[in-house]
Amino acid sequence: MNRQTLKAYYQLTRLNRPIGIYLVLWPALWGLWLAADGVPPWDILGIFILGAIIMRSAGCVINDYADRHFEGHVSRTCTRPLATGQLSEKQALGFFVILALLGLSLVLWLNALTIWMSLGAVALAILYPFMKRYTYWPQAFLGAAFAWAVPMAFTAVQNQLPWQSWLVFAITMVWALIYDTAYAMADKADDVKLGIKSTAILFGEQAQWIIGFFQLLMFSGFVWMGQLFGLGGYYYFSLMIVLGLFGYHQRLLSHKDPSLAFQAFLNNHWVGLVVLLGIVVDKAVN
Predict the structure, then answer these.
(1) At residue 37, what are phi and psi to the nearest 5 degrees?
(2) Which of 91, 151, 83 shows the shortest CA–CA distance to 119?
(3) Which of 146, 120, 135 is nearest to 60 (CA)?
(4) Minimal CA–CA distance to 211: which of 252, 258, 241?
(5) What is the rounded distance in angstroms from the CA atom of residue 54 to the CA atom of residue 35?
(6) Is residue 188 over pLDDT 90?
(7) Which of 38, 123, 268, 285 is most buried, by the most CB atoms less than 10 A from its CB?
């Protein structure tokens, strides 16, 4: 395998653009800290960090395979390896299988319930990329795929699935509707031409305000989460920062500029990190 091919595989995983890893990892770490009521076991923490990197990479590969006939017509994606022919469809599918098996092998170190849960993660990773052809809500499927790490975190630590874990799952799904709608706003013109569906197209001119509604819904979920898990002042201080970030994202979206909508998407991962820091510090102090 020559250097150019290796570079193409690397580009296919988008490890050079780690935003997707953060969007998967921060909610997974929320779940681990909440499930453990503090610092989770180090081996489980390591498995989830590696798993987030590997499964996000696998998700990028299968996404590019699903979009292989569209990417060449979109300015932002026309240089990706499948669009340019640097890699074949067969190579991409084979690479996805390798990454998925590698991710599953990590889970084998965990309990049986978490192993069974991991099959749902793989199924959602495969399902999501194809949904944009059939529904205007592919962002909801992305949210389910990214949020699936949350209940897995609870089963890994507690070997059970408490109902409270599904609140954190739901918060993460709402978050995906926020940031991935902003992402879709950046691609809206190309998506309309290609017949690709998204919440940005569905919401139309009201997209900014509907994102605002989802931001309020997410914030309310965070408040409820704090009450359920006995979080204190440091956590609620982090939520005040989150409100400021939401306001900044609204300002970016108000310009109706695709590049600023994409900037709002990129900046969203700070929401997840700030909440994580609030949880970690609160649990450490209290």
Answers:
(1) 55, 40
(2) 151
(3) 146
(4) 252
(5) 23
(6) no
(7) 268
Q: Furthest-apart CA pair in the chain: how many Å?
A: 55
Instruction: Using the predicted structure, report yes or no on whether residue 101 has a pLDDT greater than 70.
Output: yes
| Tokens at 131, concatenated | 């949904």
User: How far is the C-alpha of 33 from the C-alpha of 225, rounded, in Å?
Assistant: 13
Both tokens of residue 142?
A: 């992305």
Sign of CA dihedral 77, 269, 163, 49: positive
Categorize the per-residue pLDDT at 26 as very low, low, confident or very high, splitting at 50, 70 and 90.
Answer: very high
The DSSP-derived string for the chain is: --HHHHHHHHHHHTTTSTHHHHHHHHHHHHHHHHHHTSSPPHHHHHHHHHHHHHHHHHHHHHHHHHTTTTGGGSTTTTTSHHHHTSS-HHHHHHHHHHHHHHHHHHHTTS-HHHHHHHHHHHHHHHHHHHHTTT-S-HHHHHHHHHHTHHHHHHHHHHSS--THHHHHHHHHHHHHHHHHHHHHHHTHHHHHHHT---HHHHHGGGHHHHHHHHHHHHHHHHHHHHHHTT--HHHHHHHHHHHHHHHHHHHHHTT--HHHHHHHHHHTHHHHHHHHHHHHHHHHH-
Exposed/middle/buried for residue 250 (C-beta within 10 Å: 0-12, 13-18, 19+): middle
pLDDT one-digit tens code per residue, 60-73:
998 888 877 666 55
Non-local CB neighbours of 69 within 8 Å, separated by 6+ positions: none
pTM score, whole prediction: 0.93
Q: Give the pLDDT score at 40.
A: 97
Give the pair of three-digit tokens for residue 147: 């949020």
Cβ neighbours for 211, distance < 8 A, ≥ 6 positions apart: 177, 178, 181, 182, 249, 250, 253
pLDDT at 172 over 80: yes
